[in-house]
Amino acid sequence: MKRITLLTLAAKPGSMNTLFSYFEGDLEDFLTYVKKIKDNRLVKVRLSSVESFCHVLDNYAVKHIMHRHGGKKERLRGQEPVTEDDFFLIPEIILCPDSQISIQCKNGNPGKIYTKDLEEQTYILIEEIRKGHSEMAITTLYKRKKKLTDAKSPK
User: Is residue 45 part of a domain?
Assistant: First the structure.
């Protein structure tokens, strides 16, 4: 699995929050670690900072993405399954999206939907803005085959 250089992975400076811990390491190690977590503790990886907010990916999101969007059922829905390699595209999806839409999440918090066309896939990433923690937390990631647009025929 390839390494990623766009991620800034570090413990949150001066954090006294005992509800979760920040993972120290690279994204590949984080994905491996998430597979081993058996209890309900929350572990987050800090992706990058935007103004006073930081983008985070936690173990619950990773498990949700792989369980709901990483299996064979995705193909039945007409979508492509998410793989571990797709997690390495997250910084590019967030930092250079093709589109970005503000939304209200199911729980009432504001959020954002990012889309990015890469090769033959369209990636859709949803973040929830958590003002209390100054975080933009990734809640889901999925991908679809790119839809063919009406190409102009040569004259």
Answer: yes
CB 66 within 8 Å of CB 81: no
The answer to whether position 127 is within a domain reads yes
- What would the pLDDT profile of 62-99 be if each residue is shown by its tens digit? 889 999 999 888 888 888 899 988 988 888 898 889 99
Cβ neighbours of residue 141 under 8 Å, at least 6 residues apart? 61, 65, 69, 82, 86, 87, 90, 93, 123, 124, 125, 126
Better pLDDT: 101 or 77: 101
> Is 7 domain-assigned?
no
DSSP structural state of residue 91:
H
Structure tokens at 13: 């400076």
**Residue 136: Cβ-neighbour burial (10 angstroms; 0-12, 13-18, 19+):** buried
Number of domain units in the chain? 1
46 token code pair: 């800090």
Could you tell me the end-to-end alpha-carbon distance of the chain, in angstroms, rounded to an integer? 46
| Residue 106 belongs to a domain | yes
> Quick one: CA torsion of 66, 34, 24, 45, rounded to 10 degrees?
40
- Hey, what are 122's tokens? 């369209």
Domain that holds residue 63: 20-145
